[in-house]
Amino acid sequence: MLHLWYNYFMGSVTTSIRISADLRARLEEAARQLQSGKNRIITQALEEYLDKMNRQKFLEEARRQSVLASRAAREDEDAWLKHADGSGWK
Fold first, then answer.
1. I need a labelling partner for 71 at 20 to 30 A (CA). Which of 25, 37, 48, 86 fits?
2. Largest Cα–Cα distance in the chain?
């Protein structure tokens, strides 16, 4: 439903791409089997691919920030241990 709303209000543009004859045949066969238009299959595949790429970038950035935060925490911990009064601790 949301996808239809998006397409209705956002409109669309026409573009052309070059694909191999084999890929075109596979696309046409998938369209026949799914009883769907080739454009719909291409659009959905492209949206899924780009969403996956964005998720991957997000995960990589989260991992990078996690590593940076763990380094900062270790540095803070080292500073506290250096200046802490540990006398009497066993």
1. 86
2. 79
For 88, the token pair is: 């009497």
The full DSSP string for 35-90 is T--HHHHHHHHHHHHHHHHHHHHHHHHHHHHHHHHHHHHHHHHHHHHHHS--TT--
Of 80 and 48, the one with more pLDDT = 48
DSSP state of 28: H
Q: What's the pLDDT tens digit per position in 28-78?
A: 999 999 999 999 999 999 999 989 888 888 888 888 888 777 776 676 676
Higher per-residue confidence, 26 vs 85: 26
Q: Is the distance from CB of 38 to CB of 24 less than 8 angstroms?
A: no
DSSP 12: -
Structure-token pair, residue 28: 């046409």
